[in-house]
Amino acid sequence: MNQFQKSLRQHGAPLVRGRFETLQINVGRKCNQTCTHCHVDAGPTRTEMMDEETAHKVGAWIREHQPATVDITGGAPEISAFFRYFVETARSVDAHVIDRNNLTIIETKTHAYLPEYLAKHEVEVVASLPCYIKDNVDSQRGNGVFQKSISALKKLNAVGYGTTLPLTLVYNPIGAKLPPNQAELEADYKEELLARYGIVFTRLFAITNLPIARFATDLREHGQWDYYMDLLANSFNSATVDGLMCRSTINIGWQGEVFDCDFNQMLRMQQRTDKPLYLWDVTPESMASQPILTANHCFGCTAGAGSSCGGALEPTVAIN
């Protein structure tokens, strides 16, 4: 039994599956950015991307099981040759679609079409913007990223995002610390982005950095690994367990492999019975009996106010 499971038991907070709601598709590792906090270790040189056969199997599963939400991520998911196929397949069964967008992809010539396309299909844009201050963003995500992000946000605003269409921004802390209070941070973002750039958005997600891949390497290089793992474990909040995304999500990798979340995917914690499971091997009903796989990185989702792909799980919790 790992330490996370011990904490669940000590607090009388069993982690079991709830009702299936979301199919989260990680289409691959290729990205136009290389961010220091990236748990996917994504970047321009990565070649792992979903192929046509796998994409069509996933599309058939979506049509058959009709998940309430299809959440498309990467890498930069829009780089996938099948991004539009997934958007349109999911919308054909009336699923809510989420595009995990890094904003700068909109500033490339090949993807300048995105604002109008996403608006046409009423896709929710969940966009990374770790701060409203240029130097903080560029230090985490690369030189020039902030200005490109601001330009992309203005283009999204121009087609209705932030007013008639949902535009969610994502904050990740810089360094080995937990996010601050999500509601207070959202208010600051709204005030500053409107005053400085005339930008509006719907809501903010504050997401804890998980000690995986590139961020884990950064922690070790700066001698902060033990400190950060202790911080996560000592900040365990049992009230967040019911809201954890792994309870309602099936996550799949670029080869169709089944995981409980994108973090488990990066650690190769694949679901299995007598063999490793792929999406076409399972149904929402069959997944209900599968245990949720955990390890000590899971403390990142239960620390403080909690953290998920939907932001804080207890937005009123103050983090010092």
The tally of beta strands, per DSSP, is 8
Strand content: 5-15%
Specify Rg, calculated over alpha carbons: 19 Å
**How many distinct folded domains?**
1
Main sheet record: 8 strands, mixed
Task: Output the CATH homologous superfamily.
Answer: Aldolase class I
Helix content: 25-40%
Average pLDDT metric: 91
Task: Describe the strand arrangement of the main beta sheet, using strand numbers.
Answer: 6-5-4-3-2-1-7-8
| Helix and strand pattern | HEHEHEHEHHEHEHHEEHHH
How is the secondary structure organized here?
Layout: H1 3-10, E1 22-26, H2 52-65, E2 69-73, H3 83-92, E3 96-101, H4 114-120, E4 124-128, H5 134-141, H6 145-158, E5 167-171, H7 182-197, E6 203-206, H8 213-221, H9 225-234, E7 249-252, E8 258-259, H10 262-266, H11 284-287, H12 299-302
Parallel strand pairs: 1-2, 1-7, 2-3, 3-4, 4-5, 5-6
Antiparallel strand pairs: 7-8
Helix pairs in contact: 2-3
Structure characterization notes:
The protein is of the alpha/beta class and 320 residues long. It has one domain (3-302): TIM Barrel (Alpha-Beta Barrel). Helix content is 34%, strand content 11%. The chain is built from twelve helices and eight strands. The chain has an eight-stranded mixed beta sheet. Helix 2 (52-65) packs parallel to helix 3 (83-92). The longest helix has 16 residues, at 182-197.
